[in-house]
Amino acid sequence: MFMHNKKLQYTVRVSEANPVLASLMLEQFGGPQGELAAAMRYFTQALAEEDPGRKDMLLDIATEELSHLEIIGSIVAMLNRGVKGELAEASLSEADLYRSLTQGGDSHTQALLYGGGPALTNSSGAPWTAAYIDTIGDPACDLRSNIAAESRAKIIYERLINVTEDPGVKDTLSFLMTREIAHQKSFEKALYSIEQNFPPGKLAGKRQFADLYVNASQGNGDSDGPWNSGGEWKRLDDVVGQIPLDGGAGSATVKLTEEEARDLSTFMQRLESRVDEQATPAKRH
User: Domain of 247?
Assistant: First the structure.
């Protein structure tokens, strides 16, 4: 079960209303790298997790992400609080109110459609979607995806910190950014605690191709590094000369029944291009 504590996990101090900044903050409320997406990602993973330790960790982090959603949503609400009252009470002239709403971003959309509250959208107004959640049900895959998600969220928080001069907002964003680092560490430890975490899944793959590096983009700028050179790799530079890699004909074939082959032949004959005839407009039958 869930319970709610009315105290925020971290105090939100906003120096002044700023609806434009509020629009940008929505990226971490309802965006693909935001707190709602993170909470739903980890919560759904936890429900299906069989390992007690990973299940506990995922529930802990998912629940904390909901706390972070509350924090970033509170920042948005505080930044919109001034224009919320002005719009509701029509205390400004039409021209001044219009200017306050259209300073930039989607602040006018927030104020008009959502009353100044945080909307489940990203900073461009695109609605939140479950398509942000890329869970696949294999812990080795999902933990790697979680690590990447926390890394991306950390970068978004960095960028948000860089676009505001409000010291209180900066402080709270720094807290949220730092928690992304902590979660990334937890997911990394959980991944490495799985002895057979690479490659993900049960099947090892075709051995002759597992250590093959295909130099498919050749020319000025070719580089060597641990990702394509050394004792671990068999490097293929003569790509055209070596394909197909399986030693076959390099074509696609399928075995058809006699009836399937006959129907396909009829279909091909009916739609065959007549290159020896001049093309004319379609004629009615």
Answer: 205-269
Of 159, 192, 225, which residue sits at a domain end?
192
Whether 63 and 158 map to the same domain: the answer is yes
For residues 31 and 118, membership in a common domain is answered with yes
Same domain? For 105 and 136 the reply is: yes
Q: What is the pLDDT of residues 16-62, one digit of tens each?
A: 988 889 989 999 999 999 999 999 999 999 999 999 999 999 999 99
In which residue are the tokens 């009252």 written? 85
C-alpha span between 119 and 126 (Å, rounded): 10
89 lies in the same domain as 172: yes
* Cα 157 to Cα 178: distance, rounded to the nearest angstrom: 9
Whether the bond between 19 and the residue before it is cis, its omega within 30 degrees of 0, is no
Q: Token digits for 270?
A: 């009916």
Binding residues for Mn(2+): 35, 65, 68, 150, 183
Instruction: Name the amino acid, one letter, at 223.
Output: S
Helix (H) or strand (E) holding 236: strand 234-236
**81-105 burial: b if 16+ Cβ within 10 Å, else e:** bebbebbeeeeeeeeebeebbeeeb
Residue 273 CA to residue 36 CA, distance in Å, equals: 55
Instruction: Judge contact between 46 and 62, C-beta under 8 A.
Output: yes
CB atoms under 10 Å from CB of 202, counted, come to 7
Q: Which residues are annotated as a binding site for Ca(2+)?
A: 56, 60, 215, 217, 219
Q: Which residue positions form the known binding site?
A: 35, 56, 60, 65, 68, 150, 183, 215, 217, 219
pTM for the predicted model, two decimal places: 0.86
